[in-house]
Automatic annotation (TrEMBL):
Belongs to the gamma-BBH/TMLD family. Keywords: Dioxygenase, Iron, Metal-binding, Oxidoreductase. PANTHER family: GAMMA-BUTYROBETAINE HYDROXYLASE-RELATED, OXIDOREDUCTASE AIM17-RELATED. This is Gamma-butyrobetaine dioxygenase.
Length: 373
């Protein structure tokens, strides 16, 4: 949790917050919106019982009194007055919203860092640690997962809610000659993210290995955050182009035609990079003038070269009873080619949304803190 010190001053009335970045006076309107009494904030849902959008923009503090033990009495120019528990304001200053910070990684990552024993996740502390690892690194590999069919849905429901698509609630990944996606052929697959043609894009993919009797078919993963930092060093203008120029992604089969336009590099509402939408099998250059096309292509080509660079890639066999769960925007996945004549290779996959593990991490932290109090 971020450290914030609050100082309540009476003359003139104001509340000052001090963080590692410095001090700032908290606007009266900001404080008024966060009133905490039961008449204005439902104690069960923590949802407001008033509309803060209707507050006057010139609202001021008319009284501020430090009551000790982290409590303050605040009065405002619209007539409202109430007590505030200042610690309740602390999460507003946490840019991570209570989640672990992302830890970019490259091909030197020790896989033991991200391997998690599925059989231990009935323990809340072990579960929170596992989810924290996923949020920090963008993926985990679970082992000791039973290999019965559809077990993947139990795992998915442990972390979130299965997301049904045109591929079903879950999908079978094994070689078959006639299929609607190259993932169902024994060919190698370069680093990519799934379903960039869909709105919204599935946030997380799970792949559970039931059988793997082949020597090929190695799983590959690449952290887009680490690659983007390298591209930023080499070509910051190119990275900006990839973050601001929408491209067209398209998937089609007998029953579907899915099309979406989005940027290759994805940023959140604060401008922070969160991942990519990347699949060379599915994207198309936008209509631009020749010079813009050349500049965009230089950046796109270099990004692809970095995604294929062994320095950024981890490569490993996914064995029976192992399941990898990865952030479908941050972590690109792929596969080396394999020969189905060697034996059977059968995986099951499904999608869930990112809000599942994020919520689980916070709620487990809350319950563990309550148990320790």
């Amino acid at each position: 949790m971020i450290d914030v010190d609050f100082r309540v001053e009476s003359q003139p009335p104001r509340v000052v917050a001090r963080t590692a970045q410095g001090e700032m006076e908290l606007p009266a309107l900001w404080l008024r919106e966060r009133c905490q009494d039961a008449q204005h904030l439902d104690p069960d849902t923590e949802q407001r019982l008033f509309d803060p959008h209707q507050l006057p923009d010139d609202l001021t503090l008319t009284e501020a009194r430090d009551e000790g033990q982290g409590m303050a009495w605040l009065a405002f120019s619209d007539g409202y007055a109430g007590r505030y528990r200042l610690a309740a304001l602390t999460p507003e200053f946490d840019a991570q919203d209570g989640l672990p910070a992302a830890q970019p990684w490259d091909g030197s990552l020790d896989m033991d860092t991200v391997r998690v024993d599925w059989s231990r996740l009935g323990d809340r502390e072990a579960m929170r640690q596992a989810v924290g690892t996923f949020l920090a690194y963008g993926f985990v590999v679970l082992y000791n997962v039973p290999t019965d069919s559809e077990r993947i849905l139990e795992v998915a429901r442990t972390f979130g809610h299965p997301r049904e698509t045109n591929f079903g609630t879950y999908f079978e990944v094994y070689s078959r000659p006639h299929s609607n996606d190259l993932a169902y052929r024994p060919v190698g697959l370069g680093a990519h993210t799934d379903n960039p043609y869909r709105e919204p894009v599935p946030g997380i993919q799970l792949l559970h290995c039931l059988v793997n009797e082949t020597s090929g078919g190695l799983s590959t993963l690449v952290d887009s955050l680490a690659v983007a930092e390298q591209l930023r060093t080499e070509d910051p203008e190119g990275l900006e182009l990839l973050a601001t120029t929408p491209v067209r992604f398209r998937f089609t089969d007998e029953n579907e035609e899915l099309i979406e336009r989005r940027t290759i590099v994805n940023r959140d509402a604060t401008g922070r990079m969160t991942g990519v939408h990347y699949s060379p099998r599915l994207d198309y250059l936008p209509v631009m003038d020749p010079e813009s096309t050349r500049r965009f292509q230089r950046a796109r080509r270099r990004l692809g070269e970095l995604f294929a660079d062994p320095a950024f890639e981890i490569r490993f066999p996914l064995g029976a009873g192992e399941l990898m769960m990865f952030d479908n925007s941050r972590v690109l996945h792929g596969r080396t080619a394999y020969d189905p004549r060697e034996g059977f290779r059968h995986l099951q996959g499904c999608y869930i949304d990112l809000d599942g593990p994020r919520s689980l991490y916070r709620s487990l932290g809350r319950s563990l803190r309550a148990a320790a109090a």
